[in-house]
Amino acid sequence: MTTPISAPAPAVVPAPSGRYRWVICALLFFATTINYMDRQILGLLAPMLQKDIGWSQIEYSWIINAFQLSYAIGLLGFGWVIDKLGTRISYAWAMFFWSLSAMLHAAVASIGGFAAARALLGLSEAGNFPAAIKAVAEWFPKRERAFATGIFNSGANIGAVIAPAVIPWVALQFGWRGAFIIIGVLGMLWLPAWLLLFGKPEKMKAVRPDELAYIRQDTEAEEPAEKVQWKKLLGYRQTWAFAIGKFCTDPIWWFYLFWLPKWLNETRGIDIANLGMPLIVIYLFATVGSVSGGWISGAFMKRGMTPNRARKMAMFICACCVVPIGFVSMVENLWVAVALVGLAAAAHQGWSANIFTTVSDMFPKHAVGSVVGIGGMFGSVGGVLFSTVIGVVLERTGNYWALFVIGACAYLVAFAIFSALVPGMKKVEI
Prior knowledge:
This protein is an all-alpha fold. The chain has one domain (2-7, 15-218, 229-428): Growth Hormone, Chain: A, CATH 1.20.1250.20. It has 14 helices and 2 strands. A two-stranded antiparallel ribbon has the order 1-2. Helix 3 crosses helix 6 and helix 10 packs parallel to helix 12. The N and C termini lie close together (7 Å). The model is unreliable at 1-10 (pLDDT under 50). InterPro entries: MFS, MFS_dom, MFS_Na/Anion_cotransporter, MFS_trans_sf. Its main location: membrane. This is MFS transporter. It is found in: Membrane.
């Protein structure tokens, strides 16, 4: 059964004096930063590892696929675990195991060993986004969720900025094994702060009554916390709209994350010591895109747009901003090419902040983690398929142009499908 998302709502609660919810957002931001540093390290060290281990383009795609397949499985599992056990404990276990898995890379020296280590990392890192989206739904009213999502999601870009600035230097100083260990330790340092500072809003002494009322102002705040079966969720068009949107667009982000260092090395002649600056510029673009993409839909809503129209307008703008990436292979100047990739990365993150937020717009809180997990699983499956295509294309042609053209078209296709499946973005009642 569905009801219109624009159904009459209670009076808007004024902004509170308390700001503790932004402490929670900061924790989510740092966790996402660490998450992306752990996953990006392989791409940054790929030129060095390729010389030491001797893998081909196709074998490198197999290692990436090991991560993405286990990530897909983990997303399904964590969605259920988070909805059942709660955000606090689930997120803590996820951080512990993915940090441990990151350090385990230092103990392997073969294609099979890296594939196994990446599989463990993917399985445990899958907890990050379902838990973070669930935390945002618990701690923020609807009108702030896209902005809060954009802020924590920008941690992916900050991690991607810090990683190329730090990891190549660490690897040159301490070897690639030392780089994996040092980055893995960061997650262990986050755990105590999370366990100390996070809890349900109504149980946190630092949350003032006016802030709690502000957080709980939306009608879904009083929904019962009941278990929702995946089979039931798959019966809703809203689930499929989110899942297909992720299937079409997540693979493009994976392409940027794992293959851009190789693209710069193979087509622009940039070695590992000089990879940092181009990648830093690209992910600084992406950071701005993540925050502004979440902000713009909130700004549209403040101007009177419905959540349906505001989210879709923001998503369409982002989809259009990706299109110029299709011409990047025709550009000879390095920094113009970097700017085009940066614009596409920024647009992806703005798109991501909004499509994630549509889940909490369309589903009750007790189903958010599971729906995000399903969508993330579809995105990872798409990533596996695209990664396989990338390996074959590069092994046979050595040319990236067709891959960038696919990336240019993917978001408009995803937007068209999303809009067709949920033209009014109806609210699901489970």
